[in-house]
């Protein structure tokens, strides 16, 4: 059977953007920016997107399209069956497994807000009351498991349906709608009293607020938000035709992703500063603030339903890319049927997500927090985003930069591209800039290099 392919070029861009744009942009980025003092963190993140994320995205697409296979098999094909590089593929499969397990819990919150919106939860509530609803949800273990289950069933169902029918069709319609709704919310935020303070928080860098841990988190998030470092883009690239311009496609996906993350901040922080909330509220931030905007908008209750549905959908298009890596791995590597390769790993990810769903309630692994210092949910997120993805990313960069057959890489980069002249620059960024940047970040993290106040907790 020939390998499945995207139905159109636009279809690929939307699917890749669908993978990239997700909870990372709307849920995670604002809350970690809030915890890390805003501007300076945002600045590091933007630099990381441009200097590290963009070139690595091209690298993943180059490998994927050239090898026409999922990560492990792709590295086997390119580097040889016995080469150690295939470990990068395995690392990706494990990372995808971990990320999806807790990602589904957050997506579940979003589904739960759909139901709450339908039940008109904003009716007659003050901003404080609206924002405290999240705290109740967070500690309700059973409720979280319920929505986590529902979301995993949705993701499994779609990946089961295969690439074209499942993933592509819906992205084309719903992603643009999400974008339009965000524009509406930004416009509303402009008229809030805290808008200028919100803008200053996001865009005026105050380097003193940046910690070593914050730097690592900003770079780690660049990988997370662009779906890099674990072969998700590599896998999507494997369904690409030779006509696609990989450089252009990567530039579009990176820009869209960044734009949406910044728009989310431009909605959330004006609300924070207009209603006297704190920016460092942690994982509940988006759920505590955006509903407040709806409560002040004509037609707000209806828009709230739409918004949380779209957020859940954005999460779904990301979740399927995570699951697709695991599924296509079992198909390509072990010859499993798509059915089996979706159901068995999907079921295991679901089970592994249960301790994350119960993290807020402390019902399972309650001692985890005491031993590790973070609850199970936060530990998985920390491990995957701050360590596993950057590790995978740097290995991919080093492989493409130094070890892959240069002729092959060059030909693949050139294929279908108007930006052929960028090849040499790109290669040297992968060879030198990316590894150096990552090593510096690592040295910051382990405390060999210091930034700002050395007494700040890292
Ligand atoms: N990028 C998605 C987001 O921002 C999450 C995601 C999907 C992801 N696929 C991935 C993260 C692969 C890392 C690797 O929400």
Summarize this, please?
With 458 residues, the protein is mostly helical. The protein has helices at 9-20, 23-35, 39-67, 71-79, 86-118, 127-139, 141-160, 163-190, 195-203, 212-225, 232-237, 246-274, 285-295, 300-334, 338-357, 368-372, 376-403, 406-414, 423-446.
Short descriptors:
binds tryptophan; 458 residues; Amino acid/polyamine transporter I; mainly alpha; 19 helices; 76% helix
How would you describe what is shown here?
With 458 residues, the chain is mostly helical. The protein has one domain (9-445): Up-down Bundle (Amino acid/polyamine transporter I). The protein is built from 19 helices and no strands. The longest helix is centred in the last third of the chain and has 35 residues, at 300-334. The N and C termini lie far apart (51 Å). The mean pLDDT is 90. The protein binds tryptophan (TRP). Tryptophan (TRP) binds at residues 19-20, 22-25, 99, 224-225, 227, 230, 232, 318, 321-322, 389. Residues 19-20, 22-25, 99, 224-225, 227, 230, 232, 318, 321-322, 389 line the site of tryptophan (TRP).
Taking pLDDT < 50 over at least 5 consecutive residues as the criterion, the unreliable ranges are: none
> What is the H-and-E element order?
HHHHHHHHHHHHHHHHHHH
Q: Using DSSP, what is the number of strands?
A: 0
Distance between the termini: 51 Å
Name the CATH superfamily assignment.
Answer: Amino acid/polyamine transporter I
CATH topology group: Amino acid/polyamine transporter I
Describe the sheet with the most strands.
none
Helix content, binned percent: over 70%
Structural class comes to mainly alpha
CATH architectural category: Up-down Bundle
| Rounded average pLDDT | 90
What is the overall shape?
globular
- The radius of gyration is 21 Å
Bound molecules: tryptophan
Give the amount of beta strand, in percent: under 5%
Alpha plus pi helix count: 19
Number of separate domains: 1
CATH top level is: Mainly Alpha
């Amino acid at each position: 059977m020939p390998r499945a392919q995207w139905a159109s070029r636009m279809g690929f861009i939307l699917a890749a953007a669908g993978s990239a744009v997700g909870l990372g942009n709307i849920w995670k980025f604002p809350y970690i920016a809030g915890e890390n003092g805003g501007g300076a963190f945002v600045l590091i993140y933007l630099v990381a997107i441009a200097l590290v994320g963009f070139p690595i995205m091209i690298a993943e697409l180059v490998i994927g399209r050239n090898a026409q296979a999922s990560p492990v098999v792709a590295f086997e094909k390119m580097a040889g069956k016995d080469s150690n590089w295939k470990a990068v593929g395995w690392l990706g499969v494990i990372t995808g497994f971990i990320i999806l397990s807790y990602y589904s819990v957050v997506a579940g919150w979003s589904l739960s807000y759909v139901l709450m919106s339908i039940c008109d939860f904003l009716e007659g509530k003050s901003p404080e009351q609206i924002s405290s609803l999240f705290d109740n949800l967070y500690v309700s273990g059973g409720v979280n498991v319920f929505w986590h289950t529902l979301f995993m069933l949705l993701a499994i169902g779609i990946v089961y349906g295969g690439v074209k029918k499942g993933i592509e069709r819906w992205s084309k319609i719903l992603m643009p709608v999400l974008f339009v709704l965000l524009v509406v919310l930004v416009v509303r935020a402009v008229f809030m009293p805290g808008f200028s303070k919100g803008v200053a928080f996001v865009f005026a860098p105050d380097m003193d607020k940046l910690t070593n841990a914050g730097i690592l988190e900003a770079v780690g998030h660049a990988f997370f938000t662009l779906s890099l470092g674990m072969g998700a883009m590599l896998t999507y690239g494997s369904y690409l035709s030779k006509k696609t311009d990989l450089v252009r496609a990567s530039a579009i996906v990176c820009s869209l992703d960044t734009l949406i993350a910044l728009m989310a901040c431009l909605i959330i922080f004006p609300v924070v500063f207009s209603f006297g909330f704190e920016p460092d509220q942690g994982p509940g931030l988006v759920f505590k603030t955006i509903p407040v905007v709806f409560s002040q908008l004509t037609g707000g209750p209806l828009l709230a339903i739409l918004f949380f549905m779209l957020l859940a959908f954005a999460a779904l298009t990301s979740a399927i890319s995570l699951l697709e890596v695991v599924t296509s791995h079992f198909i390509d590597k072990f010859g499993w049927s798509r059915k089996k390769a979706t159901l068995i790993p999907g079921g295991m990810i679901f089970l592994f997500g249960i301790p994350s769903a119960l993290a807020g309630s402390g019902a399972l692994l309650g001692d985890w927090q005491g031993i590790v210092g973070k609850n199970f949910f936060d530990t998985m997120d920390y491990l995957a985003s701050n360590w596993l993805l950057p590790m995978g990313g740097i290995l991919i960069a080093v492989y493409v930069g130094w070890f892959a057959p240069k002729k092959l890489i060059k030909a693949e980069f050139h294929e279908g591209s108007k930006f052929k002249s960028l090849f040499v620059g790109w290669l040297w960024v992968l060879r030198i800039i990316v590894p150096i940047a990552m090593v510096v970040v690592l040295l910051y993290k382990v405390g060999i290099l210091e930034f700002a106040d050395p007494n700040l907790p890292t």
